[in-house]
């Protein structure tokens, strides 16, 4: 990815990224980065994130999608932040509908799970190209399909004691994703009105609707396209883009999870093992 507007020393960014990667691979959490590096800005945190992604690549992981986080008021209140962020998905941590996922195999620390709407674009989007910002309608026009998704999140920061800087540096607290088949946008119905229930072992534990995600999940995707454009990057076509959780996250304890988005968009299921 192109470099964001950060003046952070590359060796310092690399050192923080190395510590985050070690925590990801071992399950040993870190103290908050925002406490040990109190001068970091959000742009500095994205510089660390990019160094972290390079570390994952060196470890053999491939970026297979993008994720947007912190898009609903519930999630922002839960984590004590006040704006969205973004990160990436890796091939080793992306699963199909109905998968069984082992927390031990993934070296999780304090994992949580969220139900989201995923997007597939038919063409790349980047805000600021020619001076024009991407709108939600631009996103809808470029959408090849949408699908039910579970995002698995985890913080490499001990006890989720995070600020925006902490979660941005830590790849937006992403662990992985479980992705169901996509349908066309017209077949999915109006996404702001889409209602979702999230059940664990047959018991509904969360319920929300698409309007919780910046008013419309397409607005979240437009936000990301504009943010990436500002940083000299673009939102790619043909890969899953997670638009953000419809509800606060719940603890990803062992069990069978189903997010039901109704008869039009469908469901996604995952079995989580210890």
Which ranges are low-confidence, i.e. pLDDT below 50, for 5 or more consecutive residues? none
Q: Which topology does CATH recognise?
A: Fumarylacetoacetate hydrolase, domain 2
Distance between the termini: 35 Å
Number of domains: 1
Large-scale geometry: globular
Main beta-sheet annotation: 8 strands, mixed
Measured by DSSP, the beta-strand proportion falls in 25-35%
Number of strands: 13
Sketch the topology as an H/E string, one letter per element: HHHEHEEEEHEHEHEEHEEEHE
- Structural class assignment: alpha+beta
> How many whole angstroms does the radius of gyration measure?
17 Å
The top level CATH class name: Alpha Beta
What is the CATH architecture assignment?
Alpha-Beta Complex
Number of helices: 9
The name of the CATH superfamily reads: Fumarylacetoacetase-like, C-terminal domain
InterPro entries: Fumarylacetoacetase-like_C (IPR011234), Fumarylacetoacetase_C_sf (IPR036663), Hydratase-Decarb/MhpD_sf (IPR050772)
Pfam family, one: FAA_hydrolase
Protein name: Fumarylacetoacetate hydrolase family protein
GO molecular function, one term: hydrolase activity
List the helices and strands and how they pair.
Elements: H1 10-26, H2 33-36, H3 42-58, E1 63-69, H4 73-79, E2 85-90, E3 94-96, E4 99-102, E5 112-121, H5 136-142, E6 143-153, H6 164-169, E7 174-179, H7 185-188, E8 195-200, E9 203-209, H8 217-230, E10 241-245, E11 250-251, E12 255-260, H9 262-265, E13 267-273
Parallel strand pairs: 1-10, 3-7, 4-13
Antiparallel strand pairs: 1-2, 5-6, 5-10, 5-11, 6-7, 8-9, 8-12, 12-13
Helix pairs in contact: 1-3, 5-8
